[in-house]
Every structure is written in structure tokens, then in C-alpha cells.
Amino acid sequence: MVKSQQCEKAAVKKGPWSPDEDHKLIAYIQRYGIWNWSQMPKPAGLARSGKSCRLRWVNYLRPDIKRGSFSKEEEEAILKLHETMGNRWSAIAATLPGRTDNEIKNYWHSHLKKRFKATEPVQEAQVFNEKKKLFSETELFLLGEAPKASKLETTSTSSSSGPVHGDHNKDQIAEQNICACETFGELQSLWAESHIVRDSEAIFTDPGFTLSNPPTQSWLQEPIFPSGSSYNDASNDYWVNLSMQAEIDGI
DNA sequence: AACAACATCAACCGCGGATAC
DNA sequence: GGTATCCGCGGTTGATGTTGT
């Protein structure tokens, strides 16, 4: 795995993501899946670091993200879990489907922290001491019960291979639709549609697609290179060209 | 209407663990 | 076993929006 961090070292863009960048990232992941964050930006046509891409995807573009304000139940859950787990935002997020650790963290600092302090000022020190005792129990509970959203990605991305050619017609249509979207809502509804297609048809009818994850996680599917090739610098150019061609053809 | 103060949240940074070589 | 790299996490920052004066 000892590879240079070419993408990281290259001049990378920072700051807010443009809709065009979002489109590119979504289109790329939809077509090839998540296989290596640090090497994805280049073939995806993005001047971003892998870290930035991952963050954007995990916190904003992922199709299963629930947007909008937190419900009472969610608030209660966060308060309760924070009481026992402290600032383990990813663990808390794992118990709240559709919510990201970043979102929960922000919500905590902007809304719940005050309430926590206002309602339980004398208990804070006590809670701190209690945390250590309760921690292992809570973790065991979560390991057994909670959906490990972040780990889904880990397992699907840990082995590096490369993109696979799926059903290009469907992908191109989806990609074109993605790039026609202007709002997050449009993108999400497009995701929903494209998943229905992929889950029911595309993946199962693609002879080169080996399904190891449930269909609902198809966008995390480990990509496969054509005929045993691997993702290296030489093939990199191939995917760069492919991506550029897709830009020309479909966008 | 103009400005300041505050609130919100997307994004960045740095660190540590896991893993590949 | 040592080193390089990737990934995910938590803390923090900065831009933008909202509210108050």
C-alpha cells in the first residue's frame, strides 16, 4: 500500500463545495463506488484532497442522510447517549440512522449543550466519573444493536482495487440527471430513483458484478477492475480519460 | 437602515489506530 | 519489526445567516 499521496500533495482546492463538484463526486461514486479516498479525486475530476471528498460524502452527499431539524426523540437520544458516552460522536451517530457525527456534534454545541448545563449543572462532575463505569457496557450494547454505518464504508473500501464498468447506459442516464440537479433535494430524490434501478436490475444483471453486500449498500460496493487488472498509475490514466470522456459525453 | 453580537453549520486540521508493504 | 499510507475521529475554525440594538 505504500503509495505516494499524489492527490494530497497536489494543489488542492479548499473551502465550500460547488454544486459541480458535488455532481462529480456523486457521479463518480455512483459509477465506481468508494475504493480509495486518496486516489479518487483525480479520476473523479476533482481538485480536492481525499479527506475533503470523504468528508463531503459522509456529511452531506451520502444518499441515506436525513436532513432537517432533529426530532424530540433524537434530541433525547443524543442527550442520553452523551451522558453515558461523552463526546464519542461517531458512536452516538451510529444509533441515529441518517444523522452524521458532525451534524450531531454541531447540534450538541449549538442547542443541547446549553440545555444540558441548564438542567443538570450539579451532575456534570458526577457524570464524568460515571462515564468510565458505564462506557464498556454501553459500547457492548451498541456493538450488538447499533447499525455500524461508518464501518460499512470501511469494510467496502479497505481493499483497494479499482472501478468497474457497470451498466453504462443506466449510469450515464443517472449521471446526466445528477448533473441537472441544482438542489440537494433533487439530488436525493435522484439517488432514491437510481438505487431502485440499481438494486433491482443493474447489479444483478451485470455479469461482472459480484455482490457481497446487501443491495441497499450497492453504492458502497467494492469496485472491480476488468479482467483482473489492478488500479495503478498506468490504469489511472485510463480512468482519468474515461472520466473526462464521461464529462464530455454526459455533462 | 446600519451595525454588532450571536447562532449555526460546513469544512479543515491534527492525531491515532489499522493496515499494507 | 519498521515505515508509509489510509481512514476515521474529535476539536476547532470561519463563513454565512439571523436577531437584537
UniProtKB/TrEMBL annotation:
GO terms for cellular component: nucleus. SMART domains: SANT. InterPro entries: Homeodomain-like_sf, Myb_dom, Plant_SW-associated_TFs, SANT/Myb. This is Uncharacterized protein. It is found in: Nucleus. It holds the Pfam family Myb_DNA-binding. Keywords: DNA-binding, Nucleus, Repeat, Transcription, Transcription regulation. Residues 9-61, 62-112 form the Myb-like domain. GO terms for molecular function: DNA binding. Residues 9-61, 62-116 form the HTH myb-type domain. Gene3D superfamilies: Homeodomain-like.
